[in-house]
Amino acid sequence: MKKIRGVWLTNVDSTVLDSKERIVEAMQFLADTGFNVVFPVVWNKGYTLYRSQIMQDIFGAKFAIDPKYQQQGREPLLEVIAAAKQAQMKVIPWFEYGFAYSHQSLNNPQKLIFETKLKQLGWLAYDQDGKPLAKNGFQWLNALLPEVQDFMLNLILELVKNYDIDGIQGDDRLPALPSEGGYDSATQQLFRQQFNKQPPLNHKDKLWLQWRADMLTNFLEQLYTKVKATKQELTFSMAPHPFNFGWREYLQDWKTWLNRGLIDTLHPQLYRRDFNSYKNLCQETISQLKSNQISQLAPGILIQVGSFRINPIILWDMIQYHRQHGINGEVFFFYEGLRANNNELAKFLQQKKYQNS
């Protein structure tokens, strides 16, 4: 896709996926506003939003799909695909939680079943104190383990093979692992074999950071190769952290991903609330790319979170800044920000003829 005007669809702080009728109305609304691609969430809180035989086989029938949709007898992804195609928009499912399996704020009997099974499988990540790895509330699988990588690979390939989608998307948690992780016995042993010494206790030691980041890059190469071998035409999309933070905190080396030709489109989450902060981060991001890679860039812009909602004029300044610097698209986080205050932001974008920008 040359020009991406996208929006993320969530099932948190949003009702857009709550019924087929809402989805149909939303897709037409987005198309009328000038968007051409949606990124619906398909993996979070330990559940898929599509029927997954892989989840069912490993964790049991209750995990075949998010129980909310199980009870409704619905499959939100299928409804999004049908409605988006009708509105002539592309659908790129988004694996929001990636290698994070849950959040500490979530507490239900099924989470306990899920976590117990993960422990039995030996899939949890650990920090240097031997505690299960959690960062900013998210609880993590060990993304460096081949078995965990295979699980994620199979989950994504299941979606690619069975659904009429236009691409797949990883993000700030796929591929990623908090840099506090990697202190499990298998990973430590691998490091000792290669370097004849223990992994550093400083989890931000440069060699230790790069070695683990390279393991995630190699996983991404495997994923990219298998997705493209299954459906060559799919867009392989990534929405990682801004580079310096992402590499240091989450082992995301997306400059290498781009240089090795492992992604088609890059949507770094440049989530800043005022124009100057955004411009500085955007400029820094551009400076980290080769000139021939800028056409792959369509940054993520924050339009709403919690009580924050972006001022339409500031949003337009960000979009204009993109066009002035050869950036032909962006993705908005998230859908409800367009509907707030009687569709204020969407009306503004229509008035500005966003579809022609």
TrEMBL record:
Keyword annotations of the record: Signal
A Pfam family it matches: GHL10
Residue runs in coiled coils: none
Domain of life: Bacteria
InterPro entries for this protein: Divisome_Glycosyl_Hydrolase, GH, GHL10
Segments forming domain Glycosyl hydrolase-like: 3-311
Protein name: Family 10 glycosylhydrolase
